[in-house]
Design goal:
Length: about 475
């Protein structure tokens, strides 16, 4: 697509991930002449191409595979000869990614957004230089610039990626075989999700984590429930353990680890997946030269309107502080563009959900019990187990619980945590409740259809006041 006849834009966005493409579509709706600069051959960024979407496709396929092998008999469904066709599974994943990335191009056309292929660099306020794959350059003139360049996997010293034996999350989505033994460094969402995929498909999985438990930052009580569930499925954990180095010898990876008592040990695996998080990607964007300030972690500093230290330059998503979540980036992109257009954009950071897409899932919104204590808040807590939920029983998915945290004085809901089947869907009701400032009493008195999983949220709300009706 080409630029407008006068060669200038109202907004140029660097990065076509969730933050960038969503911001672009909203800008187009608002009548802003908009271009998106993307270095990759397809739109969608990490999330659609090598992150959220392909991982969820493999998670779903692997869940069905394991259920067909081990769970259907209990339902009265007998199958024989269930086999894994990994190439077909990967082909399905790739098809989903293609459909969604092409869909973004269609939305750009609908909203009159120009897609400029190449690597974007801020040449100064109002100027973006684009270097195409063939090395040619062009400059885009614009009133405003939005940085939405996302993030990349963190590579640890002594654990350099080789794309085959020592891999990052991107390579873990493209393995052409099931590793006999897989060691995962990092018990966060990415490590647990990808570890779950390959365990279901046949790998022996060991997760090595530097902290005392899984998913640091999530509510500890609920994270412990998830850990127990995954352990029961066959996933092994080594907590308070550091991987100091890794060496590839033939077809194996030899690891040196050090435990909390400072004793060294060794592990071996066919594949080592390093999933210790991601870092902001403002690299090669010319931000330092343009005067854009970054924090010690390399993230771009912005104010509450997403403006950087240079007038006319903004940033959203993984390149700024906060959780690296696609939906957080999307909402920030929309709010930023609405501000640029003179409207009132807004993001409530207390109502941004987070999900670990294992099975069962762990979902959270608002503050944890630990955070409430750290802030000196007086709270009341209600809990309700899925084992007491009628729909969960009919589904045979009774692991986990719902936990609701409410202010002891006002009863306003401060946090909700769900560990169990369909937690990623159930957390939406909690997010809306927090966004609207609801009390636990509001949720408790809202009629929920029976039998459904959301009744567990109502029962947790009732439990805040000590009056759960089914447990």
């Amino acid at each position: 697509m080409g630029d407008p006849g006068n060669g200038s834009y109202d907004l140029v966005i660097i990065g076509a991930g969730p933050g960038g493409y969503t911001a672009a579509n909203r800008a187009g709706q608002l009548g802003l002449r908009t271009a998106v600069v993307e270095k990759d051959a397809t739109l969608g960024g990490t999330c659609l191409n090598v992150g959220c979407i392909p991982s969820k496709a493999l998670l779903h396929s692997s869940e069905l595979f394991e259920e067909a092998r081990e769970g259907f008999a209990e339902q009265g469904i007998r199958l024989t000869g269930v086999e894994l066709d990994l190439p077909a599974m990967m082909k399905r994943k790739a098809k989903i990614v293609t459909v969604l990335t092409r869909g973004i191009a269609g939305l750009f056309k609908k909203n009159k957004v120009d897609w400029v292929s190449g690597t974007g660099r801020v040449a100064g306020a109002g100027r973006v230089t684009v270097t195409a794959a063939d090395g040619t350059t062009r400059e885009l003139a614009t009133k405003s610039i939005l940085i939405a360049s996302g993030s990349v996997p963190i590579e640890l010293p002594g654990l350099a990626f080789d794309g085959k034996r020592i891999i990052d999350s991107t390579a873990a989505l493209e393995l052409d075989h099931v590793p006999g033994e897989l060691v995962v460094v990092g018990a966060g969402a990415i490590g647990l999700e990808l570890g779950s995929v390959w365990r279901r498909l046949g790998s022996k999985v060991t997760v090595v984590e530097l902290t005392p438990g899984t998913v640091p930052g999530m509510d500890r009580e609920m994270a412990k429930l998830l850990e127990r569930a995954l352990h029961k499925q066959g996933m092994k954990f080594l907590f308070e353990t550091k991987v100091e180095s890794a060496k590839v010898t033939g077809e194996r990876v030899q690891l040196t680890v050090r435990g909390k008592d400072d004793t060294a040990g060794t592990l071996e695996a066919d594949v080592l997946l390093v999933a210790v998080g991601r870092r902001a990607y403002p690299d090669l964007l010319g931000l330092k030269e343009a005067g854009v300030r970054t924090d010690p972690r390399g993230r771009i500093e912005v104010d509450h309107h997403y403006a950087t230290s240079v007038p006319g330059i903004y940033a959203v998503g993984d390149v700024i502080a906060g959780p690296m979540l696609a939906h957080k980036a999307e909402d920030e992109g929309v709010a930023c563009v609405e501000r640029i257009a003179g409207k009132a954009g807004h993001v409530n950071y207390d109502a941004i959900p987070a999900v670990v897409y294992t099975f069962p899932e762990l979902a959270s919104v608002g503050i944890t019990e630990e955070q409430a204590k750290e802030r000196g808040l007086a709270v009341r807590i209600g809990r309700f187990p899925f084992a007491a939920n009628a729909r969960a029983k009919t589904m045979g998915q009774i692991e986990g619980a719902v936990k609701m945290i409410a202010d002891a004085k006002t009863d306003r809901i401060l946090g909700v945590h769900v560990m169990g089947t369909h937690a990623s869907d159930l957390i939406a009701e909690a997010a809306v409740a927090i966004e609207l400032g609801a009390s636990s009493e509001d949720v408790a008195r809202s009629t929920h259809a029976h039998p459904t999983l959301p009744e567990a949220l109502k029962e947790a709300a009732l439990a805040v006041d000590g009056r759960s009706l089914n447990s």
